[in-house]
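Incident log, support desk, overnight shift.

02:14 A customer reports that sequence design results differ from what the structure should imply. Their input is reproduced verbatim below. On-call engineer (initials T.W.) acknowledged and began investigating.
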């Protein structure tokens, strides 16, 4: 069989696919579009090694995909079932791949996939800031660089596919998965999504992968980021207009600008139709309007959900038929929905052509990934994972993700440059001080630096560091996978608060680390594993801890460690400084310490609006003109606006200037803003460009982000920052749901955040 055309690397991929497809039995075809994860233990022997005999007995027609070769036994906590070492993971891939290519009839290789939301979710891999932290960098080039390193680490282990990035537009902070997103704005999310895919797969649109690259998976199409009541997998009560204006654009940008080869459908329903059954969504829009050519993969167990959750199918077999006919090509992670498709074909409910279409897409991905030519891992290279290059990049990413929200002069901390004389005492307090929280879909880096360890290392013998937990947030382990989730005992926490007060009494400054754990806000993937909340406030006795520290009447710096924007009006009002750090990755402690001491100047900006309370939700900056009229006894103003972030230096942004004051439909325009660093130290500013269609045939948002640039300026330096707005920035969906540019005037706004802007008028001529 090795002389068959499909093994000839010199032939076009399309020819190789068709040759192989013509040789396959129906059962072999179905095997290619299902995955195994739960059943991994059934094909493993002692020591969880791959067992060819068991695999042959259970999967005589081959295996299309294996999920997460880095884990030993399917869906369970890595802390309960440890992940494989790099060596064991690679050997598992080699053994499984050798069996598939040498001992199955056609020798079709296996596609392995892993999670890589903010680093390969495996042992000894580099852990970067969570996605919402990466969005806070407002730096697509950095995101591209990070994902290129992730791809390199992943490919070296013989894994050719990853389940990232997430380009859901997140519009409800009650939703525990907001940490996995790039925020609330379609343009920012789209730019970060494009950069992620380019890092993982390479630039351009040619679908073949270069060495060191992996297949990216675009998640989750769509509406997932604004579920009803903020609960994961809840219905997305979203109109077609809102889908096209807010939720579709990031997906469309990635599909049209990159070589993306896999799109994952979302769990939720839209207007009564689950995304995995939504042919309009997956065929008419994704493939028809946008010209997408790759595979659509299911979210984990989402096909079965159509039977057990959505109740639109009587059983998994019928759910699988519905999904296939709607445009879903691959069943993740176990194949319970697709495993009976051969029977469906024989009984006439599904056509052979429909199966062939899905298999053709899957095989195309495998050929484009180079699996038929060289699928093998590189152990020597893989063992360098999380080495010096990764650590340095993780530190850089953490530094650039930090957002300074408030500072009345308490930061940077007053620590002498050299030891000697009176040492200041810094009280490091709080449940998030002595732990490196990584967030959901985490990997296991070789070393993680906690904020407390980072501060101690940074100050050395120049200051005294004292520490107390203050409160615990949850009982037991805070592992993202773990259940149940129970808040810590209030009375025990109050004793801890009293201890913390005693520790902090003699300090010159208090640095309070509060926020969430990986358990208190996370993906709620089952009724027994919840992660969404009805409140945005800090949980446990953290507000009491803050009040006790505030009562000591000392400079009080609050460091937020969390995966979602909490509502904390009391802290926003009472703290002397607030630093939002999100889950900043393995080097968070070093980066946070350097920022607190002034060795790093924070320059990140919020990718989300921070609401004051749940009653304001939904709360996003690009609202329609009739929204936010007002409330009795409260304000419509956010706690912090989208795009907001301070610096240890100051900047002056001049009035925007346009390359043209009049353009025609189909043209763009360049906006130039003079930016001056008016302070005494170097720093980063993010110049943001917004626009508003002044008079339109349908209502438009009060402002929409259309361009941005992060720049570094020395003290006293001025730079003219030029940002080009694309022609599509001026388009709208009219009353006939046609995308057009309507002649008239546009207000172009520039500023350092969405709330403080200067404007100029642009005319779009007929």
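02:41 Re-run completed on a clean worker. Output:
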């Amino acid at each position: 069989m090795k002389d068959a055309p499909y093994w000839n690397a010199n032939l076009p991929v399309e020819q190789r696919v068709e040759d192989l497809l013509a040789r396959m039995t129906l059962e072999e075809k179905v095997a290619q579009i299902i995955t195994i994860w739960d059943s991994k233990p059934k094909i493993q022997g002692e020591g969880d090694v791959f067992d060819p005999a068991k695999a042959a007995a259970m999967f005589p027609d081959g295996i299309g995909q294996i999920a997460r070769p880095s884990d030993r036994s399917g869906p369970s906590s890595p802390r309960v079932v440890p992940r494989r070492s790099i060596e064991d993971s690679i050997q598992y891939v080699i053994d499984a791949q050798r069996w598939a290519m040498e001992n199955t009839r056609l020798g079709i290789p296996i596609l392995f996939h892993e999670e890589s939301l903010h680093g390969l979710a495996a042992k000894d891999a580099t852990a970067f800031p969570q996605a919402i932290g990466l969005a806070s960098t407002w730096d697509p080039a950095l995101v591209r660089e990070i994902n290129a390193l992730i791809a390199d680490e992943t490919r070296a282990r013989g894994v050719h596919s990853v389940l990232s990035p997430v380009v859901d537009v997140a519009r409800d902070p009650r939703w525990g998965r907001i940490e996995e997103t790039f925020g609330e704005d379609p343009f920012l999310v789209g730019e970060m999504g494009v950069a992620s895919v380019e890092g993982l797969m390479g630039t351009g649109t040619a679908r073949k992968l270069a060495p060191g690259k992996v297949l990216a998976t675009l998640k989750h199409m769509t509406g997932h980021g604004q579920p009803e009541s903020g609960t994961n997998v809840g219905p997305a009560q979203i109109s077609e207009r809102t889908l096209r204006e807010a939720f579709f654009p990031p997906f469309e940008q990635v599909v049209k600008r990159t070589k993306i080869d896999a799109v994952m459908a979302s769990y939720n329903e839209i207007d009564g139709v689950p995304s995995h059954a939504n042919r309009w969504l997956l065929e008419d829009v994704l493939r028809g309007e946008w010209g997408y050519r790759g595979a659509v993969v299911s979210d984990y167990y989402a096909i079965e959900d159509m039977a057990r959750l959505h109740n639109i199918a009587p059983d998994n077999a019928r759910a699988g038929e519905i999904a296939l006919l709607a445009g879903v090509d691959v069943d993740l992670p176990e194949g319970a929905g697709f495993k009976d498709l051969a029977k469906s074909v024989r009984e006439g409910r599904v056509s052979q052509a429909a199966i062939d279409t899905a298999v053709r897409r899957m095989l195309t991905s495998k050929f484009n990934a180079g699996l038929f030519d060289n699928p093998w891992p590189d152990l020597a290279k893989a063992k360098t994972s999380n080495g010096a290059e990764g650590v340095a990049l993780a530190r850089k990413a953490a530094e650039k993700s930090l957002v300074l929200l408030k500072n009345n002069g308490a930061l940077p901390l007053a620590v002498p440059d050299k030891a000697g004389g009176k040492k200041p005492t810094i009280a490091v307090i709080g449940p998030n001080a002595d732990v490196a929280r990584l967030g959901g879909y985490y990997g296991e880096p070789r070393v993680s630096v906690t904020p407390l360890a980072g501060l101690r290392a940074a100050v050395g013998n120049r200051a005294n560091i004292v520490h107390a937990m203050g409160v615990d947030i949850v009982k037991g382990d805070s592992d993202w996978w773990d259940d149940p989730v129970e808040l810590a005992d209030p009375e025990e926490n109050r004793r801890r608060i009293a201890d913390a007060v005693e520790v902090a009494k003699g300090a010159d400054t208090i640095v309070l680390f509060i926020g969430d754990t990986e358990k208190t806000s996370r993906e709620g993937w089952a009724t027994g594993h919840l992660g969404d909340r009805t409140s945005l406030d800090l949980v446990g006795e953290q507000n009491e801890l803050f009040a006790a520290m505030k009562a000591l009447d000392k400079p009080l710096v609050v460091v937020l460690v969390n995966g979602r924007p909490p509502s904390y009006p009391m802290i926003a009002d009472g703290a002397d400084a607030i630093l939002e750090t999100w889950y900043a990755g393995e080097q968070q402690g070093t980066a946070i310490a350097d920022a607190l001491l002034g060795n790093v100047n924070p320059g990140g900006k919020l990718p989300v609006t921070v609401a004051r309370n749940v009653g304001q939700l939904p709360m996003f900056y690009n609202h329609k003109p009739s929204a936010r009229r007002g409330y009795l006894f409260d304000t419509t103003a956010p706690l912090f606006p989208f795009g907001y972030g301070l610096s240890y230096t100051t900047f002056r942004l001049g009035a925007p200037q346009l390359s043209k004051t009049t353009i025609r439909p189909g043209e763009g325009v360049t906006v130039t803003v003079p930016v001056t660093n008016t302070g005494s130290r170097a720093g980063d500013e993010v110049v943001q460009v917004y626009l508003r269609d002044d008079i339109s045939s349908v209502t438009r948002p009060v402002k929409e982000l259309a361009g941005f640039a992060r720049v570094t300026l020395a003290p006293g330096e001025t730079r003219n920052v030029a940002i080009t707005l694309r022609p599509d920035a001026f388009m709208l969906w009219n009353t006939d749901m046609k995308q057009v540019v309507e002649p008239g005037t546009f207000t172009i706004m520039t500023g350092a955040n969405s709330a403080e802007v200067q404007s100029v008028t642009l005319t779009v001529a007929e």
